[in-house]
Amino acid sequence: VQVASVAPQVSGQITRLLAADNQFVHKGDILYQIEPFDFEVALRSSKALLEQREADGYVKDLQSERRKRLSDLATTREQQQVFEGSSQQAKAAIDAARQQVAQADINLKRTEVRSPVNGYVTNLLLRVGDYAHEGVSNISIVDTDSFWVDGYFEETKLALLCIGDRAEVKLMGYATPIVGHVTTITRGVSVSNAAAGAQGLPNVDPVYTWVRLAQRVPVRIAIDKVPPGMPLVSGMTGTVTLRDGSRAEEKAWFYRAKAALGTSLTHIINGVSPRPHCIASKT
Question: Does position 45 have pLDDT exceeding 90, yes or no?
Fold first, then answer.
């Protein structure tokens, strides 16, 4: 599952805690409140500065317009340019003050820390009175819209599976399986023998039996249907069975039993024949 690590975008003391450990929250729900007083003062100060800049800009704009209407005997072109430049500077100062108001306003809103996803609050250690630091994660939420299943299949089985195959996942302790389908296949797994040993040489472990077990490759399975009353907890163990939905006759138990022995012997003697156009092989 994906876990959202929530960090405040402003710093301050926590005055209200609205979430509890293992509580379900919706996207946008308030998790906790940071003391807003300093940010309210900053917003009011920014608004006052904006009003001051707007008034100053209004005066300088009138002065510039008045200079433009005077005759050449009463003013010079240089004086007109000076007043016009002052008016432009005042407009720029007004724009800067508006941005400060916008920043102060968003900072005030950020004192209410909200959930970015639908999910469960987990491992909550916050308390009212704690100090929240900007950018430091202090609450985690398990995203309930992001669950998936990882099936670890032997490399000798990869030729038999296809993207889109139906998957049935039977969790330990539950009789009814979760239904899903294959979405992606991992393209790399760690190899312990590739680690460098003395003098930078590859470190190859001695295998006295000269037998190597088939490597397990993670296969990601998207969840399509969860049985009623089954809680999904990241880290649970299950048995994954893949089925080719295009071959309906294989759903019958007697067909599978009849083909099981012959298929196993054929794979041992001739190897596995891959199903075509199942897994992309771009290089």
Answer: yes
What confidence tier does 176 reach under pLDDT thresholds 50, 70, 90?
Answer: very high
Give yes or no for a contact between 59 and 8, defined as CB atoms under 8 angstroms apart: no
Please, what is the angle between helix 77-109 and helix 37-69, to 10°? Answer: 160
**Comparison of pLDDT for 166 and 277, the residue scoring more:** 166
Write the CATH number for 196: 2.40.30.170
Residues 115 and 196 in one domain: no
Domains: count for the chain: 2
| CB-based contact 158:43 (threshold 8 Å) | no
Nearest to 29 by CA among 95, 118, 111, 91: 118
Model confidence over 62-89: pLDDT tens digits? 877 777 776 665 667 677 777 777 888 8
Residue 32 · residue 16 · CB < 8 Å: yes
Which of 143, 174, 206 is the endpoint of a domain? Answer: 143
Judge whether 282 lies within some domain: no
Q: What is the mean pLDDT of residues 247-257?
A: 49
Residue (of 225, 242, 270, 222) closest to 153 by Cα position: 242
Phi/psi zone of residue 2: left (φ > 0), alpha (ψ -120 to 50 degrees), beta?
beta
For residue 200, give its domain range.
150-270
